[in-house]
Amino acid sequence: MRWLGAACAALVPWAGAGAQSARPSARLDASAVAVLTAAGPVPRGGGMATELRIVHPVLMLRAGTAAGGLGLVVTVNVDGWTIPNGELAPGMWGEGFVDRRHPHTFAHEIMLVARMPVGGSRVTVAAGKGFVPFGTDDPMGRPPLRYPVNHHLSQILERAVAMVALEHGSLRVEGAVFGGDEPATPRGWPKLDRFGDSWAARVTVRPPLPTGAALELQGSHARVHSPEHRDGTGLDQVKWSGSARWTGPLGPARAYALAEWARTSEGGGAFVYHTALAEAALESGPHRPYLRIESTERPEEERVAAYRTVRPLRDDAILGVTRWTIVTLGYGLDLLSGRLRLRPFVEGSLGGIATVGGGFFDPAVYYGGTTTRAATLGLRVATMPVGHRMGRYADHMEQHAHH
Amino acid sequence: MRITEPHRRHAPPISVFAALALLAAACGDSSGPGTGLALTTIPIAANYGIHDTYVRDGVAFVCAWDDGIRIYDVGNGIRGGSPSLPVLVSRFKSPGWGRAHNAWWFHNPNTLEARYLFVGEEGPGRIGSSSSGDIHVLDVSDLANPVDVATFGVLGAGTHNFWMDEGAEILYAAYYNAGVVAIDVSGPLSGTLPANRAVSVTPGGLGNTFTWGIQLAANGWLYASDMLSGLWQLAPGTLAAQTGSGNNVPERVSSDLWVRGDYAYTGTWGYRGNRPGNALKIWHLDAGGAPVLVDSIVLPGVGTVSDVEVSPDGKVLMFSAENGPGSGVYWYDLTADPTHPAFVAHDQVADGVHTATFASIGGQLYAFGARNPAHPALLIYDVTQLLPP
Asked: Which residue ranges make up each domain of chain B?
């Protein structure tokens, strides 16, 4: 429950006035998850595949100046070494991978953050390579291990970005300009000549609640130029996201709940993808049960291998759209309570695949069925502060100060 | 005799392709060691790159997707270019439309004009279901200054490959989910061409039509290759589908076609179920012109056979291939038996080649290929000596 508590502490009171460090400080954290995953259907034949992998291997440096006015966030992710061919995740797609989660880039975040009071408000400015203020939290920091199918509908990350956030009372408004190009490889860097071709804005409201609870409502919008084609000649995306996130006491336990909806329109409405997701988690002593229900539409692109699609894209056609409806249930057990945390867990998913509208892609033929399932045994090892919300740069100073 | 998908003895084994691909990758070159046929390589803008090339009278029209149309002198003489040293004559990029996909330079035998270039625009679509993109007409009377003069569109559908009956002044356009569209392009063309200039057919019927290519054959029949429903024989006037054709490639998605004499050749694309587009289908046209499948060449290491063409003298079959270590350009000898082409050469190109076309220039035979990203380029080969004299 500590990670929920820490998150709440970071959120309520919102700005955490006066909590800043008196001297410069830095903190280095690490995390990784060892997983044995069996998942299916395997493309072109069905059945299950089983893999043992290290996923989310992350090093994170967070530093701040005295008085907390200036901060640095550096996150190194070595997915590119541990899962160069991606992580088994039926339904997941993006960056040339399909039915496997793509490896993130080694330089996951390198962001300079400055925060200053302006009258009765606070202004945060951040720039570098990192998260765009759009949508919901990065799935890596959320209770389920499994990435949601909607990752590319609900988050925008690993971009060259400059953002500003204005906070006043329970209201936060964030705006950013960034380069629309998605990473093409784990070693890839954003194309600097693409910087500024896309923008996003997010409005967050955190109405006051009784002590120990926090509610966060967000709505965001983004216009992303050619995310799927690095050189800028692909289709543009118009994205919307709305969510409600709550943390607070639930009897003797602490609870977390998130409900989100997002929509991405591509090519002037030629393709439209929707997602709805709800997830919840409890922290009761060392016990960590969690649940996610998701229904997300994704494009079916021409594949060059079972788990890979054509990159760079050669034209703007897709084979169809499928909807993945997946229920994920998991349970973790915290074994250590110090800075080093060990959490063995088990997680299972069951879902269905349906076609949406016309097109050539038939999941029943391609997968040999329309049911998806996955089971994972894992061990999460981390020194990371629980509840850290990656990419929330306006919160960075608060979190840094509290650590 | 019908032989289904034999692994033909002349297809190089996959291990050779893989080795060549690895060698090419190790050398940092997206092309393989080549065949000795390559003359030159013209890099195209590093965005989408090059999709197709139309060559006629020593002029090459490169369809460079977002970058529009590039016109090269490759032997015409207007800029002193040659196949080994193409010279850019002009570029055309419309602010109003993009994604130049294919082209046809109309030589009107009735007016002796070579005034119009028809350009196919390919927009977003769902394969097998929906498509978008119009036909644009450029006035290329002055090749150095193309002018966008007219457009033609079909509501709810997008155009793909062209063929022309130039004497009848009819442009035949494969139109994906709209099937085949025949457009009267006689007279001056300007503005939005009215729908009553066109007739159309969906040969496979609704839900079973997504037409890739069309060709008017020397036997007087039209042939259309439909991604979903295979090779069709159509009547040129009415576009009526002829009995005995179509619904004849159930196991794969069909792609391009070429008809020569009593034979037709069709490619295959992507995946249908678990079947990759690694086959080149060989058809005999019976006395009534109906296609009868007689053989297939199945290529290991290939995911799509994307473009098919026979040389003007009928001796060489060429096709381009993508999505695998066997990608590149293939040449086969048709002289001994057009139903059983004999392998001659393969230029392995790791990025894949999307289209390839022949052109006779100055008495020599050349092939122009469109290399895919990440290293898009116009590839030019001298294939005059491909076959022994």
From this structure: 14-382
